[in-house]
Amino acid sequence: MKLIDMSIRDFNKVLASDAPAPGGGSTAALGGALAAALIGMVASLTDGHKTYDKGGPFIKHAIERSDELRAYMLEIVDRDTEAFSMVSAVFTMPKNTDEEKAARKTAMQDALKACTITPFELMECIYSAVELADEMIGNYNTNAASDLGVAVLNLKAAAQGAWLNILINLEGIRDEIFCAKYLISGSELLQAICEAADDIYADILQGLMPK
Description:
Elements: H1 8-16, H2 24-46, H3 57-90, H4 98-136, H5 145-170, H6 176-208
Helix pairs in contact: 2-3, 2-4, 2-5, 3-4, 4-5, 4-6, 5-6
């Protein structure tokens, strides 16, 4: 059974077990998916509202785009665990001959790269979601301001979680070009996400503070 097909209670139970996966990567992806769902909710509450829907086609685009991002991040919930399973599978490979040992090392490097690429793709998706939330500022039903705020907080946390997963896998990768690519791109993406999320949260917070 896919993780995303489990009930919340069952997913929570397997997450709390001694199984090494699902873990932080899948949890980060789920957090991002929940955030995208909240953005979609805010957009839906704005769509057609005579007071707030002043963006015309943009709000309908926001609904569609948030749904796409939510679906993609839900897919990553399972993909992250599947990538980790590749690492676990390496430990079952034979290592009696030099050829077997070499094959084992190659398989491990491939598995660690897969475990790096998946959270990076999550970060790219999160960045798109943060951009969408930013476009909604000044153009959404402010009765749902707290919901949009919770969305960006979850997006930031999910991005930070994905970044930790990238870093822990890069430690074991010997391909210096690969490591440099994801270290630089990932750090730049994280900075952009965190800065945008903080700005959106600050804007929402200011609007909700008692006058």
